[in-house]
Amino acid sequence: MNNTGTNVTPALAAEMGLTADEFARAEAILGRTPNLTELGIFSAMWSEHCSYKSSKVWLKTLPTTGPQVICGPGENAGVVDIGDGDAVVFKIESHNHPSFIEPYQGAATGVGGILRDVFTMGARPIAILDALRFGSPDHPKTRHLVAGVVAGIGGYGNCVGVPTVGGECQFHPAYNGNILVNAMCVGLARADRIFYSAAAGPGNLVIYVGAKTGRDGIHGATMASAEFGADADAKRPTVQVGDPFTEKLLIEACLELMQGNAIVAIQDMGAAGLTSSAVEMAGKGGLGIELDLDRVPVREAGMSAYEIMLSESQERMLMILAPGSAAEARRVFDKWELDFAVIGRVTETGRLVLHMRGAVAADIPVGPLVGEAPLYQRPWRPTPPQPDIDAATLPARDPRDCLSKLIACPDLASKRWVWQQYDQLVLGNTVQRPGGDAAVVRVGDGLKALALCTDSTPRYCRADPERGGAQAVAESWRNLTAVGATPLALTDNMNFGNPERPEIMGQFVGAIAGMRAACTALDYPVVSGNVSLYNETSGDGILPTPVIGGVGLLADLRRAVDLGLKRDGNALLLIGETIGHLGASLYLREIEGRETGPPPAVDLAAERRHGDFVRARIAEGDVAACHDVADGGLLVAVAEMAMAGGRGIALDPPPAAMPAHAWWFGEDQARYLVETGDPEALIAAARQAGIPVRRIGIVGGAALTLPGANAISVAQLISANEGWLPGYMAQA
Amino acid sequence: MKARIHVKLKPGVLDPQGKAIGNALRSLGFTGIDEVRQGKLIELDLADTDPQSARARVEAMCRTLLANPVIEDYAIELG
Amino acid sequence: MNTAVVIFPGSNRERDLCLALKRATGRDPLCVWHRDSELPSVDLIVLPGGFAYGDYLRCGAMAAHSPIMREVKARAERGTPVLGICNGFQVLTEAGLLPGALLTNRTLNFICRDVHLRVETNQTIFTCGYAAGQTIRVPVAHHDGNYTADEATLDELEDRGLVAFRYCNAAGEIDDDANVNGSAHAIAGIFNRGRTVLGLMPHPEDATDPLMGCGTDGSALFAGLVGALQ
Lengths: 732, 79, 230
Prior knowledge:
The complex is a heterotrimer of chains A (732), B (79) and C (230).
Chain A: H1 10-15, H2 20-30, H3 36-45, H4 48-51, H5 56-59, E1 69-71, E2 78-81, E3 86-94, H6 96-101, H7 103-119, E4 124-134, H8 142-160, E5 164-171, E6 180-190, E7 205-210, H9 232-235, H10 244-257, E8 263-268, H11 273-285, E9 288-292, H12 305-310, E10 316-321, H13 326-335, E11 339-347, E12 351-356, E13 359-365, H14 366-371, H15 399-407, H16 416-419, E14 430-432, E15 439-442, E16 449-455, H17 458-463, H18 465-482, E17 486-495, H19 502-521, E18 526-532, E19 536-537, E20 540-541, E21 545-554, E22 571-575, H20 586-590, H21 604-620, E23 625-628, H22 633-645, E24 649-651, H23 660-665, E25 672-676, H24 679-688, E26 693-699, E27 703-706, E28 710-713, H25 714-730
Parallel strand pairs in A: 4-5, 9-12, 17-18, 24-27
Antiparallel strand pairs in A: 1-2, 2-3, 3-6, 4-6, 7-10, 7-11, 8-10, 9-11, 12-13, 14-15, 15-16, 16-21, 17-21, 19-20, 22-25, 22-26, 23-25, 24-26, 27-28
Helix pairs in contact in A: 7-8, 7-10, 8-10, 10-13, 15-22, 18-19, 18-21
Chain B: E1 2-9, H1 16-27, E2 39-45, H2 51-66, E3 72-78
Antiparallel strand pairs in B: 1-2, 1-3
Chain C: E1 3-7, H1 14-25, E2 30-33, E3 44-47, H2 67-77, E4 82-85, H3 87-94, E5 101-103, E6 111-119, E7 135-142, E8 146-148, H4 151-159, E9 163-168, E10 187-191, E11 197-200, H5 219-229
Parallel strand pairs in C: 1-2, 1-3, 3-4, 4-11
Antiparallel strand pairs in C: 5-8, 6-7, 6-9, 9-10, 10-11
C-alpha cells in the first residue's frame, strides 16, 4: 500500500482536524496507522460537517415523523406526501464560509449543491429560497458581499432554470465576520419513484457522471503537509467554481435515466466529494465499494488519491447501476454530453478499497468508519434570562415617525433589489412571487400548490434560545397559514458559533428544545436539515440562527390569498391577543437603540387555534387579504398590507389601557391581520371559537391614517420602504 | 502552436462593464483614466505548425463563432 | 396549428412556452432537439428562453451554430414564421436572422420583473391580436437584453416599421426610466424585413395563465398567431 504510515502522525492528524482520541480511534479501526489518503478520509468523515458529532445527540430529539412523511432526515433531502401520488422533496443547506471568502462562487455553488440534493432523490427542482444574513450595512465588506452573493445565487439559479421564489435578507453586526447563506430547494417527484443512496447488489457497477474532478476545495489544513511539497498552495484553489450549465444537463440527464430502472442508488458528491458519497452509499447499504481512481475523469494531470478523494469539484454524481444498464446510462449521458465513467463496483467485503496506479491507495472498513464516528455530548450552559422591559417606562413618540423609520430600516426595507435579480417565474408555475408571507408555486398543471417560506428571528434566539427556536417554527407555520396553506413539514438550517464554548452549545440546546416543542404542538415535523457551526471570528459568534424552511400545501390555488389590501370599505381585523411586548423588538432596537429584554412568549396552543381558524376562513373565501404580524409589530404589518395593495386604511384608536407604542409596535405572537368584506360574520365566528379578535381599521383612501389625524401617504411609505436597499447598494 | 485571440467591443458600442470598472477605479482614487473597455481573451492550443495556415484557420473561427462582427473586433496573436 | 419548439442544452423556458402554445393551439408543440438536423413541417418554429450552451461565449452564439439552426434558417428563408423569445431572440441575432445584438443590461444585473410594452404595429401575424399602440404588461427575465445596432440598421428598423415592441411606462410613454435594460430606441422586440421572424426579450408566454401571478397580456400574441396561421 502507498505511503503506509509515512509522515502520518498525530500532529498531522490534528492539523487535519482530528483530535488525539479520534486519531487513536482511527488507528484502532484499521489496526495500523492510516496512510495519508486514509487519514484524509477519516478527517473528512469525522468532521463536524459530515458527522454532526456535536449536534447529533440533540438533533435526534426533534420530531421527524407524521402520516405525511415519506422520508425524514438522513437522506439527501426530506420527502413528504402531498396526495395524488405526488411527493415534495426539500432541504436547506448552508454555504456560509465559502460565501464570505468568495461571495459569487460561494453562493452559486451553495445553490448548485442544494439542487443536487433534491434531484438526486428523483425530484425535479421547482423552487429555490435563500435565507441571507449579512453584517452591519456600515461594515466595509457588507456591500461587496451582498452584491456578490445575490449575483451568485441569481447566476446559478437563473441559468439552471429553477425559479427563486422567496427567502430573507437581514443585517446585524454579529455577522460582520461570518455571513450566512442558506439555500433551500424544493422539488417534485412521484411518491413511488423516490431514489435513495443505499448501495445494493454486490457486483453492480459504480459510475461517475458530471464534471471532471479538479483540485477545488481540498481541505485547506492539509496544505502544510510535507507530502505535497512547497508548491502546494499554488496547486490547490480552495474556492469551488460552479457551472450551472453542467448542472442543468445533469438534472435533465439524471431525471431522464430515472424514468427507467437503471439506477439502484444515487448520491451527489457534495462536501468531501467522492469520499463522503462512496462511504455513505456503502455505509447505508451495509456493503463495500471498490474504486479504481485511475478511471475517475480528472481535469488536471498527476492528481493523487488524496486529492481525488477529497476534491470538492462541483456538478458530480455517483451512481450504482442495475446489472445490464450501463449501455442505457451511456446513451443518456452521451445525449446530454456529460462525462461518464465506470469507476468501481459494489462488494460484499464491507470495505472501501481504493486502487490507483496498480496499488491499493486505501482500505478502510466502512461499518466502523461510519458507526464509530465520534459523537460528543458537549458541555453547555443555558442562556441567562433577560429582565423584562416595561413599555410604560419608554418615552412616548409619534407613531408615524417610528413607522417611517422602521419600514426603512435594513431588516424591514423592501428586498426587491435582491429578488429582481432572481428569475422568479421560469417553469411558469409561480402563483405568488417574493415579498409576501410565503411564495406560492403550482404543482404541475393542476390546482394544487405549495406554499414556501424561510424564517428565523436571531435576536429572539440570542435573548432566549428556547423561545427563539419555538418562535422560528411558529412564524414559519404562521406564514404558510397566512396564504391559506396547510403546513406540512420543515427543513432546518442550524447556524451557530463554536460548539466547544458552553454558552454557544447552550444556545444550540435551547433552540432545539424550543423547536421540538413547537414542531410537536403544531404537527410540523423536521424532515431534513443542515448544521453549520463555528460561525465565529476571533471569539465573536454570530447570533444563534436556526433558519426554518417551511413547506405547506394548498388544495386549490384559487383560494390562496396574499397580503395586499384589496377593496375600499373592507374591514381589517386583528386575530390574536396583544399585550404590547417590546422586549427584543425591532422597535426597541431601531427606535430606542437597545437590544435588550426577553423575546415575546410563544403560546403554542394559541398559535394552533388562531392559525387553524384563519386557514379555515381563507378556505371558505371569507378573507380578502391576510398577513402575519411579526417583526415591527402591528403598525408595520398594516403598512406592509397597504403598500402591497397600493391602498390606504383608516385605523381605529388603540386601547386606552396600553401605551400607544406598545400597541402599535409590540411583537406579541400568534397574531394575523385579515381583510374581510363581512367583519360581523368573521368576528362572530372568532368569538364563538374563543379567539381574540378586534377590528382595527377600514380600508380606503391613499393614506394610512392614524387616529388623531396623523396621516402618512402610502406612496410615501413605499418610497421609504423601497428606497433604502437600492440607495445603499448604489453608494460606491 | 498557441493562438491568443483578443475580443473586444467595437469602438462606439456601449460597454457598461468597462464603464463600471472605470467608475470603480476612480472611486478608489486612481486618476487620469479616460475610458475603460473590457474584452476577453481566448487561448487555443493548435496542432498546426504552419503559422500562415494557422492564422487563416483562426480567422475563420473568429468570423464564424468567437467574435460577433456586429459588436466585436478581434485580434489574433500566434506564438 | 402545428408548432415546433427547438430545445438546446441549457434551454429552460420550454415548459412555460409549451404550456402557452398548448393553451393557444389546443395541441402539444413538437419539441425538437438541437442535434436533430431534420425539422418536421410546422406552421411556427419557436426558440425558447434559457441559457443555451450556458451562454458561455456570448448569449446565443453557440446555439446559432447548432445543426438544427441550419434547418431553422432554411425554413425562415422559405417563409415559415419563427419566434425567438429572450435567449431565442439572442440566438436569432447571432444566426443572422435578425439584425443587431443584445448586450449586457446597463445595470449589469439580471432583471426579472414586469414591464410595460407598447405594441408598435399590429399589421403582423405576431401582433395582430393587439391594437396598434396598445400598452401591455409582461415580465422580463434576462441579463443581456440591451438591444444595439448601428445607426443605419436602427434607421432601417424605424423606417420600415420593423420595431415590434418598445419598453414604455404604464401610461404607454417611452421614457428612459422605463427602458429596463438600456436598449437602443427602447427596443424590446423586432421583426425581420418580411415580418415573418420576431425576436423579443420579454416573456409573453409567462403572461398567459390567469391562475399565475403575471396577468394574461401575453395571450393575445399566441391567439393572434393562431388566428393568422390557421
